[in-house]
């Protein structure tokens, strides 16, 4: 048998029994996805077609093939079944090295990780010898092998060097073939083609020395003060330097960063450019610098800005010029000790920086104009649910940003908790696999590998517009903070750490061995860095007398009292209303919805009534016509949970969508509305970040039910309500929280009004609970008018549910054109005879409508039998309208009792907030009492008949003249 004749015969004829079955399985896999089959086998299928048993009409050779004698030519070897199996096995070995090589990677600086089972990446597992591998051409198992690699042994060795030395690559979970192949090429060829220059290496060493000396200088100069040092993950700073350079070069004009407090001061000074003297001054003038501190994270060492925050929570800005014309602005977000909760804030910053909101329609996002970098802790990345929520933004139209660079500053500890106690996954980064994010594990003690990983991450982001994660594995040189003794919980680790050199020393030795620097040069770099630090400290001490401690009452300025015109003439509202009811030719709206919306056509005419949904649509449209962009998001915001909005319409025949807000002729700015993922904390955080970055935009977050805002409580507590006084962050964010007792149980009733009132102080919020459509119209327009000014505050709206369609809430069109937002509303038809009023009821929200219904008004007037009663609706709860309340109480000299009536239990709702404010404004001897549900642990009953009975009792007691104390 000659070589030529063998080449013309199908190799499948040489297989039988189990070997043929194996080829059949490989062919089925090849049909499903050719790339899942090893290259050599794929080539055989492409050349020879299917094996005989799966080929129609073929005869299967059930007998062993004749022994083939060879003369050493490759063409004959290729048809030797034993040789083919070795090729297949070598291909499996290559695949395993690519998939599991990270398990054997040398990226654990302290050698803390138990030795993994790496048999899957060893030739012996496949019974492959060196001779076997030497006899296989490299191209058969590695299609893109460099010319210098000719056989399988060299290929395997090179791939093991790539996948098991400096880098641990995890790309196998990426489904997109082009992405996976690109990542593989970068790992196997691309990284080696971009070595650092001598100048870059020396600059990297200088940076590591600066990082190290800054921490040790603080440690010596300010003994006992916490700083949450970076030591052990020193390479983070040069990594961030590299990200800034790369994304700025790619055109980013904004770089938005988020991180927790470990390493923050180092990042602030070296990446954000905060002067050494500024940081030293904060330590030097810390009010507690001489105290024996506990290892906590309390507000110690305050850097006062308004009421202030600890210095390791603070953010900063820096502008960096790239060449002559390009300027990039770096922003590090402020962050409380709630660690990963800054993640969605940064994502919101970034999308706001990318969106062009200047034209009607959806904003146009330029993902290249801004980039996000988030630095995570290893325990927090695995443990905090907000991480998964934020990663989920990756491909969502309203939230994506063209790729975030994630870096885990992995120090192997969470406070005192070791990895084995803090996560169930092998790596801290494993969560990212579910979102198909490429992962590279590198050692913090290998700064060149860290820089190479950053370059890969930035190139991937630039090419594919998706997230990338770098797991930088280091350690924590001190305890949780510098006052904490870590040897009480990790004695063996810290005994080892005392002998472990810092990253700058390790890298300096490496460069000296390779001839890039001398010992004299290294010492010169150290002397130079130390001199800068000492000079900055001397400056602070010399200026000590000039330092002025801020006063405790130096807080944000109060809002000025001024009238804001929010009415819109009917002649302007009418064409806007008409435009809102126009859809494209051929666009077929659901018949029922079409009829409902078309009813709005005549509501602005005399005798018409504007309901809640129409009032909102008109408010949005007029705000857009004033040139203010709007962004609205929530789990059902396109139609609204209670189906009153329907601001995005669907064609019943093809499901195409259309929003009249996008074609409104009067609009001068963008309108974005997005159904959000089923999450609250991350989405509210995103919207808060979006609004802080773009304060001129009316940003609205709508909870599906107000109760679900509970899930966003960290964002509410740490950012929305306190961001202004802690960090001087100004926000006009609107939160729509459906609230009202309808008998729908404890999770569908209360937006926890009491919590917001407890958080209200220092003029930080506006909290409302309204009872008319016109009030909502004017409220939205008032909020839009103060955006971007010092008057702006977050607006908390106890939004209605059943009231949305209640006729009592609908408004006369004149109230939209001539009115304004009223802090309080008095019940029409009551209180006309001031001297006869004996009971004054104050209430808010839905309770007021329930009381009105019980009055059985005729033509808007109450019967004379109600002369003894007056009802006042407190529409704005905070800031409390004390002047209005005082004036109303003063009008009724014969009032014997003042009631606060609410639907919430006594320990919830507004009672505890309003009671002292009302009591302080009534005459001596006047009774002030509460009517409502008794104190309860659950907000509402789950039984509708009990709810109805309780609500009837509240109304009955409130309106029964005989029931007085």
TrEMBL record:
This is 2-oxoglutarate dehydrogenase E1 component. It catalyses: N(6)-[(R)-lipoyl]-L-lysyl-[protein] + 2-oxoglutarate + H(+) = N(6)-[(R)-S(8)-succinyldihydrolipoyl]-L-lysyl-[protein] + CO2. The keyword Oxidoreductase applies. HAMAP family: SucA_OdhA. The keyword Cell membrane does not apply. Its cofactor is thiamine diphosphate. Keywords: Glycolysis, Oxidoreductase, Thiamine pyrophosphate. NCBIfam families: 2oxo_dh_E1, PRK09404.1, PRK12270.1. It is an enzyme of class 1 (oxidoreductase). Belongs to the alpha-ketoglutarate dehydrogenase family. Its EC number is 1.2.4.2. Coiled coil: none annotated. Residues 610-806 form the Transketolase-like pyrimidine-binding domain. It comes from the Bacteria. InterPro entries: 2-oxogl_dehyd_N, 2oxoglutarate_DH_E1, 2oxoglutarate_DH_E1_bac, DH_E1, KGD_C_sf, ODO-1/KGD_C, THDP-binding, Transketolase-like_Pyr-bd. Homodimer. Part of the 2-oxoglutarate dehydrogenase (OGDH) complex composed of E1 (2-oxoglutarate dehydrogenase), E2 (dihydrolipoamide succinyltransferase) and E3 (dihydrolipoamide dehydrogenase); the complex contains multiple copies of the three enzymatic components (E1, E2 and E3). E1 component of the 2-oxoglutarate dehydrogenase (OGDH) complex which catalyzes the decarboxylation of 2-oxoglutarate, the first step in the conversion of 2-oxoglutarate to succinyl-CoA and CO(2). GO terms for molecular function: oxoglutarate dehydrogenase (succinyl-transferring) activity.
